Amino acid sequence: MADQDREARTAPALELRDGCAVLSGDLLIGTVAALPREPVDARSVDVSGVGRLDTAGAWFVLDLARRTGADSGAISGAGEAQALLLEIVRNSMPDAPPAPAALSSLVDRLADVGRWTHGGCRVAVEMTGFLGQVVAALAGLFVRPGRLRLTSLVHHMQEVGWNAIPIVALMAFLIGVVLAFQGSSQLRQFGAEVFVVELIAIAVLRELGILLTAIIVAGRSGSAFTAAIGSMKMREEIAAMRTLGLDPIQLLVVPRVLALIVMLPILGFIADVSGLVGGAIMSWIELGVSPVVFQSRLVANVDLWQFAVGIIKAPFFALIIGVIGCYEGLKVGGDAESLGRLTSTSVVVAIFMVIVADALFSVFFALVGI
User: Fold this and answer.
1) Around 50, how many Cα atoms within 13 Å sit in the side-chain half-sphere?
2) How far is CA 153 from CA 23, 224, 313, in A?
3) DSSP three-state, residue 114
4) CA count, 13 A, side-chain hemisphere, 259
5) Average pLDDT over residues 100-117
């Protein structure tokens, strides 16, 4: 009987008295689950009738105060030990979830467009200025070639060129295979299978070879430039260079950009050869066009300008990739989050600008009749 009286006396309860939520009983982890969780129309919370209190009960009291709309200062009746526990739990509780944002009006959306436009124009101006610094540094090498760091240049040529040959060659080979297979299935309907040679040659030499090579280099080397320079920026090595009177653009940017300008045309040539080989093999398998016939039609019907158009684009693509990768690396702040974000940004922006430049070149060559 005594145990039943004790259980009834210590069971938690929640009552509403004159706009005050009154709690009583023991608020423990095994008992608070029985209390209601619905919002209560009250201005304060009274815990003077609470006996034992643990962290679960303290969390319930604070959550109740939040749900009633009362702040934490509206909790009354707590003993010294209970007040201390409530303060500890209050400091550990997460912030209340923010209220859902109101639907933006037309003016707000126009303001967002304005801010995005302003930010884009500012970045374009900064990047144009950075491009001017890089071009001026490259031009200065003709006047003072001794300022070129030959060891760094060779190292970056190996990284962006030699080490990229396998992936570039494999990609171009597979592109040639796909073009031959898809082209043969379409041309066969018109009895014009032999023209698959011209299809493969023009597509690979003029567009796909150098464009896809530039995209691979942007994802591989452009991101590496941003990560390497950004890591140096985080470790304050670039600030130390400037303190010693050294130019980071001359030491870090110029060798990387120059290595890309030298190696991207070579990678483009390798991609062209691999694409033609892949197309020739698939044409032989799928259409019976022997390598001898493929070579003779390639030499007879494909102008040398088709190859030159792709190679002419390569140095410009290299300049775009190198400048954007190094520019984003120099923007990295002191945290790892900015390093990852700007590395991703450099890849996306470089690929986008390469495609835009390729479109402009296509229009230009069409206007001059090439």
Assistant:
1) 30
2) 75, 15, 22
3) helix
4) 28
5) 78
Give the C-alpha separation, 27 to 285, whole Å. Answer: 80
86-116 b/e with 16+ CB inside 10 Å = b? beebeeeeeeeeeeeeeeeeeeeeeeeeeee
- At 30, the amino acid letter reads G
What sign for the dihedral angle of Cα 273, 279, 282, 288? negative
Question: Would you state the pLDDT for residue 168?
Answer: 94
Tens of pLDDT along 6-47?
444 477 777 777 777 777 787 787 777 777 776 666 777 777
Amino acid at 229: I
H or E stretch including 309? Answer: helix 304-330
The long-range contacts involving 280-284, CB below 8 angstroms and separated by at least 24 positions, are: 280/176, 280/180, 280/200, 281/177, 281/180, 282/176, 282/177, 282/180, 282/181, 282/184, 283/180, 283/184, 283/196, 283/197, 283/200
For residue 136, how far is the Cα from the chain centroid? Answer: 30
In tens, the pLDDT along 171-211 reads 999 999 998 888 887 877 777 777 888 888 888 988 889 99
**Residue 255 contacts residue 152 (beta carbons within 8 Å):** yes
The pLDDT assigned to 62 comes to 80
Contact call for residues 310 and 213 (beta carbons, < 8 A):
no
What six digits make up the tokens of 159? 């990284």
User: What is the rounded CA–CA span in Å between residue 113 and residue 117?
Assistant: 6
> Dihedral through CA 42, CA 48, CA 53, CA 58, nearest 10?
30
- Cα separation, 46 vs 14, in Å, equals 10
User: What distance in Å separates the CA atoms of residue 71 and residue 274, rounded to the nearest whole number?
Assistant: 71
**Is it the case that residue 79 has pLDDT exceeding 50?**
yes
H-helix segments, 93-164: 106-143, 150-160
| Secondary structure of 16-38 as H, E, C letters | EECCEEEEEEEECCCCHHHCCCC
